Amino acid sequence: MTTTTAPKATSHVPDLHGCFGEFGRRFVPETLMHALEELTTEYEKARQDPAFQKQLNELLRTFVGRPNPLYFAERLTQLCGGARIYFKREDLNHTGAHKINNTIGQTLLTLRMGKKRVIAETGAGQHGVATATACARFGLPCVVYMGEEDVRRQKLNVFIMRTMGAEVRPVTSGSRTLRDAINEAMRDWMASVETTHYIIGSVVGPHPFPMMVRDFQSVIGREARAQCLQEVGRLPDEVVACVGGGSNSAGMFHPFVDDELVTLTGVEAGGRGGQPGEHASTLTYGTKGVLHGSYSYVLQDPDGQTMDVHSISAGLDYPGVGPEHSYWKDTGRVQYVNILDHEALDAMKTVALNEGILPALETSHAMAYAMKRARERSKEDVIVVCLSGRGDKDLNEVARLTGQTI
Amino acid sequence: MSAIAPVFTRRTAENQLAFMPFITAGDPDLPMTARLIRELSAAGADLIEIGFPYSDPIADGPVIQASYTRALNNKVHVADIFATVAEVTRDITTPLVAMVSYAIIFRIGPDKFVEQAAGAGFAGLIVPDLPGDEADQFAELARTAKLDLIQLIAPTTPGDRAARIMQNSTGFVYCIAVAGTTGVREALPDELQQMLRQLRERTELPLAVGFGISRADQIDGLRGLAQGVIVGSAIVRFLETLATDPTQRDAVLKQVHEFAATLAKTAHESR
Q1: Given B129, B151, B157, which is nearest A27 (Cβ)?
Q2: Concatenated DSSP letters for chain B?
Q3: Which residues of B touch A298 (CB under 8 A)?
Q4: Rounded to the nearest 10 degrees, how much is the dihedral formed by the CA atoms of A311, A121, B54, B26?
Q5: What pLDDT, on the 0 to 100 scale, is given for residue A2?
Q6: Displacement of CA A350 from its chain's centroid (Å)
Q7: What's chain B's Rg over C-alpha atoms?
């Protein structure tokens, strides 16, 4: 009897065409193709240029505040009564989330390519803030597209972006969330591609964005891996991170992909439940398709129209996912689960009460799963959670949802 | 050979331009789409582009995006579009070309989509987010179904890349006039003439210009440089009225007819 198994995942993806297995590639209007080829070439050169890497690393150290610590969450571990839980503290980065790792890298590329203007899109506002910050640092004009619903949910971040000199353009089309902000940013880029770089905020979009953003975010996993070896004396048993578009998780997982004994778990937004329109669990409920320039899993109807999604977290409210995650799903390298809105809210509160750390609502999804999982594991086991961002930005929304006033 | 080539052969022989209007299928509903197709055909359109509404268009400007939203809000489905087109193509000879996102084609299944498009009587396909590099397999499917697969060239496309893309192109080459999305522009860029001259040296296929064109003088300016002209947003804009006043259907059809007839007349002047 013969059995067929899916090919094993490797960290050596994508290929020259941007393929992660069958996923990725480029499905964009011809107007953008030349810019994508130019970006691919320039990124390849930059990646091998010691001067670029030196400048990037120096900025990550002095401006972003890296390396950030791997923290043993002792009281949370005691509370759960199982595996030891560690946090990789991306919340301690300048601007309070992992997003800055990518925007610093892409801003340096913008300068290298001689482009004079930056555009970005944002959901929860963290990528917008990180882009506005990097642009302010280098004196580049910056326009950030943000769905009107997210502008409402994330007033604080809108104010921070404007204070950093960025222009925030509310998007009123469609569901007025992240997906519409991406559509609008792509349209702007179509008209300005010769002078403008589009800093995509996640591991989504056409090649080379999924690869490039993953590379810039992989500093998270590289540091976590080395810190775990140093502090625990071995690799973790399980690494957990939340997945919207999937950039913090891609950066966290990628350096562990070839460590077969490490379980990797991506946590999606389960929203209010499994009915269409009630969640944003693309890898759990989606089908293969094309969205925003790449081939990946998508939440879509039988005609290929993108479906509405819901999450308590503006940062996870996205009906697509990075193509590398789709590759990891189909090869079985990463398991994808989901956590409901109320479970994430509870986890936020539990982590705050027990550790004195307020995780973002996105991160709280990963926290909720890690706590469940820790209870099932032995005390000898180690779980590392990517604490992708801090929760200050979410407090107005949390207060509103829980009937409190600030 | 599909029904597209004879259109250009005829117009080019007379030193005329082919006039190619665009409308969105299902805006505001499919019965109106069928009436619009017949009206545009009667007004002198040489070919009509039928846009399949898509939830996340990135090449389209606000006018066409809004028309997609109107159609989708009315629950227009791909199968219904094919059914409507099949009915219309029984009575008119004007070739129809589908303008459709690859997201839709992929979801339906490329083989199945091509088969259904050919079955409905479409003469060709334009897939704006399927760039030349990704088009090999799909071009083969289209060829087998005797559908033209029209490729797009942008102002940002380098010459050698354009030559490569046009190898897979049949029917005509869709030349994007401006770096940007669809939508009416006051003036077409000066570089367009040079782009068309360079493309002319690299292909014998007819060149059709779209994005930004809405006026007779813009069509006149393309004489001798291109063989066809595509007008989208300027026509779709007439349909906006119907979102708030559905009683205006006959009036809108008349307006569209008059507008299209004027542009067709300009395109068909022999000079």
Answers
A1: B129
A2: --SHHHHHHHHHHTT--EEEEEEETTSS-HHHHHHHHHHHHHTT-S-EEEEPP-SS-SS--HHHHHHHHHHHHTT--HHHHHHHHHHHHTT--S-EEEE--HHHHHHH-HHHHHHHHHHHT--EEE-TTS-GGG-HHHHHHHHHTT-EEEEEE-TT--HHHHHHHHTT--S-EEEE-SSS-SS--SS--THHHHHHHHHHHH--S-EEEESS--SHHHHHTTBTTBSEEEE-HHHHGGGGHHHH-GGGHHHHHHHHHHHHHHHHHHHT---
A3: 103
A4: 90
A5: 46
A6: 23
A7: 17
A174 vs A177, A269, A270, A298, A317, CA distance in Å? Answer: 8, 20, 21, 17, 13
CA dihedral sign of residues B242, B247, B253, B259: negative
Residue among B31, B127, B55, B138 at smallest CA distance from A303: B55
Three-state SS at A303: coil
- Residue of A68, A158, A66, A69 whose CA lies nearest to A104: A66
pLDDT in tens, chain A (406 residues): 445 567 899 999 999 999 999 999 999 999 999 999 999 999 999 999 999 999 999 999 999 999 999 999 999 999 999 999 999 999 999 999 999 999 999 999 999 999 999 999 999 899 999 999 999 999 999 999 999 999 998 999 999 999 999 999 999 988 898 999 999 999 999 999 999 999 999 999 999 999 999 999 999 999 999 999 999 999 999 999 999 999 999 999 999 999 999 999 999 999 999 999 999 999 999 999 999 999 999 999 999 999 999 999 999 999 999 999 999 999 999 999 999 999 999 999 999 999 999 999 999 999 999 999 999 999 999 999 999 999 999 999 999 999 999 8
Chain A nearest C-alpha distance from B106 (Å): 6
Chain segment B2-48, per-residue pLDDT in tens: 799 999 999 999 999 999 999 999 999 999 999 999 999 999 999 99
Separation between Cα atoms, residue A316 and residue A327, nearest integer Å: 19
Which member of B55, B59, B60 has the closest CB to residue A305?
B55
- Sort out which chain A residues have CB atoms less than 8 A from B152's CB and list them: 29-30
Element (H, E) at A18: none
Which helix (H) or strand (E) is A272 found in, with range? none
Q: Does A7 sit behind a cis peptide bond, omega within 30 degrees of 0 on the bond before it?
A: no
Residue with the two structure tokens 């499905």: A27
Which A residues 174-203 touch B at CB under 8 Å? Answer: 174, 179, 183, 186-187, 190-194
User: B118-136 burial string, b = 16+ CB within 10 Å, else e?
Assistant: bebbbbbbbbbbbbbbbbe
Output the CA–CA distances (angstroms, integers) from residue B29 to A208, B70, B72, B144, in the order listed.
39, 9, 10, 32
0.90 surpassed by pTM: yes
Report H helices in A193-245. 209-217, 219-231
Q: What is the ipTM of this complex?
A: 0.96
> How far A206 CA sits from the closest chain B CA (Å)?
11
Chain B CB contacts of A290 under 8 Å are 101-103, 106, 129
Half-sphere exposure (Cβ direction) of A120: Cα atoms closer than 13 Å? 34
Residue A255 belongs to what H/E stretch? none
Query: Which residue does chain A place closest to B72, by CA atoms?
Result: A305
